[in-house]
Design goal:
Layout (H helix, E strand, L loop, with lengths): L14 E3 L3 E2 L7 E8 L4 E3 L1 E15 L2 E6 L5 H17 L6 E3 L1 H6 L3 E5 L7 E17 L3 E10 L2
Parallel strand pairs: 7-10
Antiparallel strand pairs: 1-3, 2-3, 3-4, 3-9, 5-6, 5-9, 6-8, 9-10
Length: 153
Amino acid sequence: MLLVISPEQYHNEYIMFSDKTKNNILSGGDFYRLYYSDPYFTSNGLFIAFSLKNVKIEKYFNKIKCYYDKVSNRKIISFIKNVEQQLLEIAPQNTKVPTSRIEEQLNQNYIKIFSEEKLDPIKLDNAKILLKISGIWADDTNYGTTFRFFFYN
């Protein structure tokens, strides 16, 4: 079972980080696992479910690019950028230079979605999306969030 929260249920005081571990993906880097623990449950990572309006979906290598309308999705996009900024502010490595990869992607008016589905280009009125933030990566000079976007039903 996957427990997700809505944007309205998110509170950054429920964020905790593990001790530093060796980053298996970034050679010579560190990783801090993120936990979201409110009075009712604790999750290994932060899972936020949300919807995007007026989207166009197309295949992009082994991912899917989901282009969205900037105006009609302004509120949720702003929320996601704020979550990333809050996480970077309280992250264990906040003395290094923050790298806002989620914001960089969102500023291009699309998100990359991990999916094995074979999709033809399509336009949708509404797409249900899941953002999973697993933790914080750090190298010698920078740090940032480890994240993925998924479709969800």
